[in-house]
Structure formats: structure tokens, C-alpha cells
Design goal:
The protein is of the alpha+beta class and 854 residues long. Helix content is 54%, strand content 7%. α13 (336-366) runs parallel beside α26 and α23 (664-687) packs antiparallel against α26 (761-791). Residues 1-20 are annotated as: Disordered.
Length: 854
């Protein structure tokens, strides 16, 4: 039988021209398409090998029990692509559902639901129709067992397993199906992933159930994609709740848990945004009250203070009151509210993580994921692990022989992996140092060439300053370096993770996630750590400056959202250009999906990474910018709908996958949360002027009562300009204010003192206060964090009770089912008369006295 023939006798084929091209069924109109493989003709010598692989692979698929149907290239929109459609009959579905222990319904859940009470009149505008929020009833579920078919609620075998479960089963088969002949046992020749990598097939994907902008004409088709687009993926639905149950039903739990986390994170950002906005408003209201800014702007104080040059040779003297405007502006973010907000964010991040654990636990229960991790570890080994691990040992849990990797090999691979990660992280730092060296060298070169314009800080007419030229060229080089490293990160991370040969898909994803995040952490945050803790902290003093320059431009979140939406749309528009020349009625469902973007292995990783990097910015450095949570909130409101639009309209339907949590990202978030307490304490202490002001206010103020008057003069030190070394002395052209003395921002002894230009006692008092503040703030926040974490259990008590109740009821229903089944067997064996009492039946159920009853 060829792959294009109908394998089921008695099914009459429908005229192909009369069947809707948007159909998700075989040509017989009965068997549903569960998966599609595509390939093209290749007339080269390598093409013959591909043809042979396809023949063997498809023959083995038929042996497993899958049914295949091929669409000829003459029927495709480009005239060269073949489509192999796959249908999974009931026997195959039942067999692999048993193997994978897929949970299926056996009774409607009759446990009363205790949902949180909400005020309906206020929540109604944000609610979606009940049929969208809960597309199917709530059932008691149990792992499928082929020997207990009548125990489960099977009304129709064709629709009992939803499409997401069906495509998950098919992919499990495809990932393990060999493409070698029986006489040639080659374990490496196995799985659809290898066939895609070597070009034997060009694509493998499950089908969307309809077009996204209109429902399917077939009444048997669910049109869930249309509902997702209508109620979820459109931007003007941004104020509506997300239909998480429908997302989970259509895309699987793994994608469902991502959108649940993203929605929860966005919701929690609301509270941080409100408090941050209040702190910013506090800064606005105290705008005119800071004495130090008044002194800087006062022509009699700041206007009379001549500041030393900020660099050697090419920089000139300047008046302190030239920084008047920036001084006022800095008070918006550097005030008492900043300290409060830093402490608040330390507590907020704990509340966010603890409440997410509770939300996640509730989803685990509602989505039947409570026992998933154990199933994942025991049953779903990666095909690559099974292929590469030649040794075998007994699994103590399943009592079956399984492949394993010796501990010596694991250690060696782990050491090589760790060394590679450290090398690439060092390479990132080295690239940054290279950009620094470039900026210094090019700035010096431009300055010598354009000496007459060297002191200008912007473009004047048609002239370009050294500052601008250096920044532009360095930015371009830096951008290229980031793009190249980002390109290499993914491949290096995948390579070293493959080398470690993780046992399960969950372990593989967690290891890959950790490696990629370490790379991106250094890439994104290195500049922020430099600016926060190093820039301007070790500059020395006039005549003995220390130079450290760096530039790292972070990506704009708004541009990121535009890029996320625009790039897939342009690719899809270009890929479907041939199809646009054909009538819509001839553009088949599989061709439409084939022209969409593939959802890659790292598809969700980049979605998580974008949000976790953002999470780091609003927690690690929030003391510097209290409005960061507000901007993140506005970005995320857009992000939810952009991601929804991408998944619904621009990507092929992903293979449904299970996940009981956000995986390694949870540990990463916990690590960032702990680090954020430390970084914010250091920012307030060493970057903000809060501690020096407090020390002056309480210890160094003039007069008997605390005051901030005179703070500016107190925070400046004097330098004798005649002591400038010759090679550092400012040029005469750079000296509009030539005086015998200049001042600079520091706490050092004046010239003529026996310890001139060394740090004064006030400096050490301020340093001690900063260290004390760090210790106190960290301990206070950590104590509150741990207390809050202890007070809030990870799993709500209601969920714990419902899990225990459901397990008890499931055991009771299974017991009753076995008893009734045994009664029926005994009744049939005794001519319709049951002759055993209850005790004998219970014993017979346990196969102890079955022979006596019969």
C-alpha cells in the first residue's frame, strides 16, 4: 500500500476539488490530520539518500500504525513541495496514551469550587465569556489505561483525545522512529529532528484548526484559534483577562504557564508602579526644598565657585552653577523616598515570588500537573539520551532496564561545560575592554586632528566633535559585537548542553536556560554595574585622574516589541508571496501553516529571557530610577498582546508540551531577588548623595541646630593649580577662569596640610556610615523577606485539601469500578447469579481466592 492510498477499507474518498482546502482532514473527510511533514524534490546525489531515508522512515511509521497521505507537489502553491499528512488511529492513540500515562477524564468533578469572591459590577468589564474562559468541564482525571477503556468517559473515540494531545503523541512517535532498515541497526539514524537537520524533511508541524480571522466552516472543527484571536490576541483587549484554560487547551501547558506567569508579573507590577510613581511625585513636591541645589544655583555661592577641569589637557575650568539644572533634576530620583522605595522593592519581589508559587500551585492542580515532574523524570527520556548512552541499568522505580551515563563521564562533561561557559563570559568582558580601548585611542586621535573643536560637546553647524565621532563609531562596533556574540551564544549553549547529554527534556531545558542566562546576564548588566559602582568612583583628583570609560547601550523595550511583531510578519508576508497569486479556495490549511514562522526550540526561552532581563533592571537598579516599574508595566501590557498575536497569527502551531512550572527561571528569579537587595543597598550608599547629606546634617552642620546650609562648600576640596604636572596642565585656551585655586568634589585635605590631598576624617566617617547603612538595610530587608516567605505557604491550604480529597475520591472510584467489574465477571461465569459475598469479592479482586469463587 502506498502512502497516498486510503488504508481504511470502506471509506469512500471525496472529490478533492469539492473538499474545502481549509479542511484539517484527509481526503476522505473523516480522518483528522494530526501532523504534517513537508519535503522537496532533490535531484542531486544527496537527494537520493534523502529519498531512501524518507522511504524507510515512512515505512516504519506505517508499521507503528500511523496512517499517511501525500499531497503531490503539483498541488502546492510553489509547485515543488510535497506534504505528508499523518493521522493517528484510535489503537495507536490508546497505546501511547498508556505509555505516556496521559491523564484523561473519568468523572465530572463534583467537588464544590471555592473561588475568590469578587465584586461583579467592578470585574465584569474585565471578564471574558465563560465558554472562552472554561472551554471544557472540570473532570476527575486518571492516567489512561488500555485495559480499563470502559472506566473513562469516552463518548467518541475520534474526539476523546483533543488535538493538542494527539499532536503530542505523534511527535513522541516521530522523535523515536528509526529510518534505517532492520538489517542495519544504526541507533544514530533515529528521529524527525535528525531528518530535519539533514534536510530530508523541510518542516514538521501540527495544524492550526482554522484561519485566525474567521471560524472554520466545518462544524466538527473547534475553531479555537479564532476564539484566541478574537478574545485574546487583539491589542484592544488589553484590559481583559487572559483565557488561560483555552491557551492551555490549544497550545499545551508549557505555553499556558508562560502566559500565566507573564500576566501575573504584569499584575504585580501595578503595585510597584504605583509606589514608584508616589516616590517620584514626592520628589516633585520637594523640588524647591533642597538647600544644596539652591546653593549651587545661587550666583553668590555656586556662581563664585570655580571647579577644576574634569580631565587633563583638553578640559577647562567651569563654574559650579553651570550644573544648576541637573542638580534640581537629580533630586527627583535622589531623595528620602528613594531609600523607602529600595526597601519596598526588596519586600515586593518576595511577595511576587511567593504569590506566584501559590498561583502556580493552583494551576498545577487545575491542569492535572501535580504528579507531572515524577512522570517526566521516569518515562519521557530524550531520544538523544537513549541513543548516546550505551550502558544500561535497572531503574529502581520502574524495575525496567534503561540507558544511563556513567558518573565519570558526567563529571568530565560537566567540567568541560563549566570551563566553556567561563571562557565565553570572559570573552564578553574582553570585548567590552576592547571597546574601552578603542574609545580612548580614537578620542585622542580625533582630538589632535580637530583641536579647534575639541571642547565642544555637540555638533555645531557642520562640525563633528571628537566626542560625537567616538561615540557613534564605538556604538556601531559595540552593536556588531553584541549581535555576533548573541548569534554565537545560542549555538555554543546548545552545543555544550548537547554534550552533557541530559536525561529528560526538562533537564535539558533547565541546563540550557542557565547557560544562556549567564551569557546574557554579563552582556546586559555589565554596563549597569559599571555605571552604578565603578564610574566616577575611582577618578582620583586634579592632576592625578584615573580614566575608565565604557559604553553599552541597552535595547529599548518598546523597540523590542516592535521588532517582535514586525519581523515575523515580514517573513510570513514574503514567504507567502506565491500563494497570494492563487485563489483563496486553493490555499490549503497545511500550505497556510507551512508559510508561517517555525516555533523554534528556543522560542519560549527568548520570551522568558526578555521579561527576566526586564525584571533584573527594575529590581537590581530600581533605586536609581523609581519610575522603572511604571515603564515596565506599560511595556508588559503591550507585550502580552504582542506575544498573543505572534502565537496566534504568525507562528505555526507548536507541539503541545507539558510543564508544571516555569522551570529554571524560578531559580533565576530567586537569585536576582536576593542580589537586588545587595545592589540597591550599595546604590543608595555609594551612588546616591543620601549618606553624605545625613552625615553632614547630624555631624558636620554649622551652629547648634541641624541644617543643610553650607553642605555644598563642605563637600568640595581645594586644589592648587600651580601643582598641576606639566603633562597634565590644562591648555591656556581651555582656561576661561584662571585662578590660583580650584575645587573638586571629594573629601581630601587642602594643599599645605601635612597630609595634603589624602582623604580627610570626614571621608572615613561617611564611608563608615555607608557600610553601616548597607548592613542595616540588608538585614532589615532579608529578615522581612524570610518572614514573609515563612508566613505565605507555597501551596494554598484549599488546594492541598482539594488534592487530598481528589486523590481519595479517585481511589474510591477505581476501587468501585474494579469491584463492579469483578461482580460482572462472576455473574457471567455463574449464569447470572452472584454466589460470593463482599469479603470474597474483595479477596477475589486481589487475586487471592479467585479460583474458589469460580
Amino acid at each position: 500500500m502506498s502512502s497516498g492510498e486510503s488504508p481504511l477499507p470502506g471509506l469512500s474518498e471525496i472529490d478533492k476539488q469539492k473538499q474545502s482546502k481549509d479542511s484539517v482532514y484527509f481526503r476522505d473527510g473523516v480522518r483528522r490530520i494530526d501532523f504534517v511533514l513537508s519535503y522537496v524534490d532533490d535531484q542531486t546525489k544527496d537527494g537520493e539518500k534523502k529519498l531512501e531515508r524518507r522511504k524507510e522512515f515512512e515505512a516504519n511509521l506505517l508499521k507503528v500504525g500511523l496512517q499517511l497521505e501525500t499531497e503531490d507537489k503539483s498541488e502546492s502553491d510553489d509547485g515543488k513541495t510535497y506534504f505528508l499528512k499523518i493521522h493517528t488511529p484510535w489503537e495507536v492513540l490508546a497505546t501511547y496514551a498508556d505509555v505516556l500515562k496521559i491523564k484523561v477524564p473519568f468523572k465530572v468533578n463534583d467537588i464544590p469550587s471555592h473561588q475568590e469572591m469578587t465584586v461583579k459590577c467592578f470585574s465584569k468589564p474585565f471578564r471574558l465569556p465563560e465558554t472562552v474562559m472554561n472551554p471544557e468541564p472540570d473532570y476527575f482525571t486518571s492516567p489512561f489505561d488500555k485495559n480499563k477503556i470502559d472506566f473513562f468517559l469516552i463518548d467518541n473515540k475520534e474526539t476523546f483525545f483533543p488535538p493538542s494531545t494527539r499532536n503530542r503523541i505523534v511527535y513522541y512517535i516521530l522523535a523515536r522512529c528509526p529510518y534505517y532498515k532492520e538489517e542495519h541497526k544504526d541507533k544514530d539514524k533515529k528521529g524527525i529532528k535528525r531528518l530535519l537537520n539533514n534536510g530530508t524533511y523541510t518542516a514538521a508541524f501540527p495544524l492550526h484548526d482554522c484561519r485566525y480571522w474567521k471560524p472554520s466552516k466545518d462544524s466538527n472543527c473547534e475553531s479555537e484559534r479564532y476564539n484566541l484571536y478574537k478574545y485574546w490576541a487583539r491589542f484592544f483587549r488589553f484590559y481583559k483577562e487572559q483565557p488561560l484554560n483555552l491557551i492551555r487547551k490549544y497550545y499545551g501547558e508549557k505555553i499556558g504557564i508562560y502566559f500565566a506567569w507573564l500576566g501575573f508579573y504584569t499584575e504585580m507590577l501595578t503595585y510597584a508602579a504605583v509606589v514608584g510613581l508616589i516616590c517620584f511625585i514626592y520628589g516633585l513636591f520637594t523640588y524647591d526644598e533642597n538647600v544644596w541645589s539652591q546653593e549651587i544655583c545661587n550666583p553668590e555661592i555656586g556662581g563664585q565657585i570655580v571647579m577644576c577641569p574634569l580631565c587633563d589637557k583638553k578640559c577647562g575650568y567651569w563654574k559650579l552653577n553651570s550644573t544648576c539644572e541637573s542638580s534640581w533634576q537629580s533630586n527627583l530620583f535622589d531623595n528620602v523616598g528613594t531609600v523607602f522605595f529600595a526597601i519596598f522593592m526588596g519586600i515586593w519581589v518576595t511577595l511576587f515570588l511567593e504569590f506566584w508559587k501559590r498561583r502556580q500551585a493552583r494551576l498545577e492542580y487545575e491542569w492535572d500537573l501535580v504528579d507531572f515532574e515524577e512522570e517526566q523524570q521516569q518515562l519521557q527520556l530524550r531520544p538523544e539520551y537513549e541513543t548516546k548512552c550505551t550502558g544500561r541499568r535497572l531503574n529502581r522505580i520502574t524495575q525496567e532496564m534503561e540507558p544511563y551515563l556513567p558518573i565519570t563521564s558526567q563529571c568530565a562533561r560537566f567540567c568541560l561545560s563549566g570551563t566553556t561557559v567561563l571562557f565565553w563570559m570572559a570573552l564578553i568582558i574582553a570585548s567590552m575592554i576592547g571597546v574601552i580601548a578603542y574609545r580612548l585611542a580614537v578620542y585622542a586621535a580625533f582630538s589632535s586632528i580637530m583641536k579647534e573643536n575639541s571642547t565642544k560637546l555637540q555638533v555645531v553647524g557642520s562640525l563633528i566633535t571628537p566626542q560625537l565621532a567616538t561615540s557613534v563609531t564605538a556604538s556601531c562596533i559595540n552593536f556588531v559585537i553584541i549581535m555576533v556574540l548573541n548569534f554565537l551564544y545560542e549555538r555554543v549553549a546548545i552545543w555544550i548542553t548537547d554534550m552533557e547529554i541530559p536525561k529528560t527534556h526538562l533537564e535539558y531545558e533547565n541546563k540550557l536556560t542557565m547557560k544562556m542566562f549567564f551569557f546574557q546576564f554579563v552582556n546586559y548588566y555589565s554596563s549597569c554595574f559599571y555605571v552604578a559602582f565603578f564610574k566616577g568612583k575611582f577618578v582620583g583628583y586634579p592632576g592625578k585622574y584615573t580614566y575608565i570609560v565604557i559604553y553599552r547601550k541597552p535595547r529599548s523595550p518598546l523597540w523590542g516589541n516592535i521588532q517582535e511583531a514586525l519581523v515575523p510578519w515580514l517573513w510570513n508576508w514574503w514567504g507567502s508571496r506565491k500563494a497570494r497569486n492563487h485563489p483563496e479556495s486553493l490555499y490549503s490549511r497545511w500550505e497556510q501553516d507551512h508559510d508561517l514562522q517555525n516555533f523554534s526550540q528556543l522560542g519560549l526561552f527568548y520570551e522568558y529571557l526578555e521579561m527576566v532581563i526586564q525584571f533584573g533592571f527594575i529590581t537590581l537598579f530600581v533605586a536609581s530610577f523609581p519610575l522603572a516599574p511604571l515603564l515596565a508595566l506599560l511595556n508588559n501590557i503591550i507585550e502580552v498582546r504582542v506575544d498573543a498575536w505572534k502565537f496566534t497569527t504568525q507562528f505555526r502551531r507548536p507541539v503541545a508540551a507539558k510543564a508544571h512550572s516555569i522551570g529554571a527561571w524560578e531559580e533565576i528569579l530567586n537569585g536576582v531577588a536576593i542580589l537586588s537587595v545587595v545592589t540597591n543597598a550599595f546604590i543608595v550608599a555609594f551612588t546616591s548623595d543620601m549618606i553624605p547629606r545625613l552625615v553632614y546634617y547630624y555631624a558636620y552642620h554649622p551652629g547648634d541646630s541641624p541644617t543643610m546650609e553650607g553642605y555644598i562648600n563642605n563637600s568640595l576640596s581645594i586644589y592648587e593649580i600651580s601643582q598641576f604636572p606639566e603633562h597634565n596642565r590644562p591648555d591656556q585656551s581651555e582656561n576661561p577662569y584662571v585662578q590660583c585655586k580650584g575645587v573638586y568634589r571629594d573629601y581630601r585635605y587642602p594643599p599645605g596640610h601635612k597630609r595634603e590631598y589624602s582623604h580627610s576624617m570626614q571621608f572615613w566617617h561617611i564611608l563608615a556610615a555607608k557600610l553601616a547603612f548597607i548592613i542595616i538595610m540588608e538585614h532589615v530587608v532579608f529578615v522581612v523577606k524570610f518572614f514573609v516567605a515563612w508566613m505565605i505557604p507555597d501551596v494554598p491550604s484549599e488546594v492541598k485539601a482539594r488534592i487530598k480529597r481528589e486523590r481519595y475520591l479517585i481511589q474510591e472510584y477505581l476501587h468501585n469500578y474494579e469491584v463492579e467489574k469483578l461482580k460482572l465477571q462472576l455473574s457471567q461465569s455463574n449464569g447470572g447469579h452472584v454466589q460470593c459475598d463482599a469479603a470474597q469479592i474483595m479477596a477475589a479482586e486481589r487475586h487471592q481466592v479467585l479460583s474458589e469463587c469460580l
